[in-house]
Amino acid sequence: MNRIIEQVKQCFDIEDCTFIPVCGHEGGRNSIMIVSRNGDKQYILRVSDLSDRTEKDYLAETEYIHYLAENGAPVADVIPSVQGRLVERIEVYDKEIFVSLFAYAKGMLIADNGYRYRDGASLDEYFYNTGKALGAIHRLSKEYEPEHTRQDYFDKYNMTYLDQLIPDEYSELKAAIAKRLDEFLALPKNKDIYGLVHFDYSDGNYHVDMNTGEIKVFDFDNCMNCWYMFDLANLWIHNEGWTWQEADPGKRFALMQQCFDCQLQGYKSETEVPEEMLEKLPLFIDMVLIENIVDEFECAIREGEELDYEDIEDAAQNLIEAIPYAGFGG
Fold first, then answer.
1. DSSP labels for 102-124?
2. Which residues contact 35 (CB under 8 A, 6 or more apart)?
3. Per-residue pLDDT tens for 130-160?
4. 101 touches 19 (CB < 8 A)
5. What is the pLDDT of residues 188-215, one digit of tens each?
6. Are 206 and 172 a contacting pair, CB within 8 Å?
7. How far apart are CA 168 and CA 266, in angstroms?
8. Of the candidates 36, 39, 37, the residue with the CA atom closest to the CA atom of residue 21
9. Are 198 and 73 contacting, i.e. CB atoms less than 8 angstroms apart?
């Protein structure tokens, strides 16, 4: 890593900075470092050598982020190199590595604050702001004309690939996924409902300014062309974490909907979402479940381990038995 850092310092003119590695989270695939100058957090350095990413993929991601930031979306911008490039390609021990430098997102993970929101403000404000930040991103996505393109949802989520990924012992699950994919294929596509989405929009990928409540979004590593409803459905599922202490299923579901209603208000302050798409929320929740299941199988293969079925059991059961709303009610 030292040889990489020395090259990075020259690429981005940050010779006087210190580099602090960040412990990777489960499923994380890149090397991340906090780059500091005089003790202040300045940047985030990402070092990538993924076999399923090309230089075009990194360019498409960083160009999109830069476009969002330049047009006022609350995202951590990409910092161009000395040569004006958003992605620098370097070689270490005959290995091709791609590096990008990002602005450090002001604020903190809400998890690092014990899931306590800022003093004197209600959680309604927090939910509203998370929806508003996502709405701003989607509003700009609808007008985005990329130079380089990211993959389309069906480039990855198709039964040719999933049949190879998921062992035949999970035949019921594969049949349930195939049924949903047919339903996804029948959905309409136009610029108002389908475009570049974050594809991992959750509280692990944005910071909250505990003074103002402002959201700053980062980690677009999984961004792809998909229905905007995917990001909204992912928000809905993550509201489960705010309601788990409620034992009554009906009340818990109502609380999740209450959180989502606040998020939707914030979202609609930035961009519209057709009512006919909102009515399909349960289907898009299934889409999120499929993404989670696929990720577990891919992680197991990368780690050379057997999948622990308990990690996907609930999601699989919801798909196989057609239980709506991720099994939380409805």
1. EEPPSSB-GGGGTT---TT--HH
2. 14, 17, 18, 19, 20, 41, 42, 43, 44, 45, 101
3. 999 999 999 999 999 999 999 999 999 999 9
4. no
5. 999 999 999 999 999 999 999 999 999 9
6. no
7. 43
8. 36
9. no
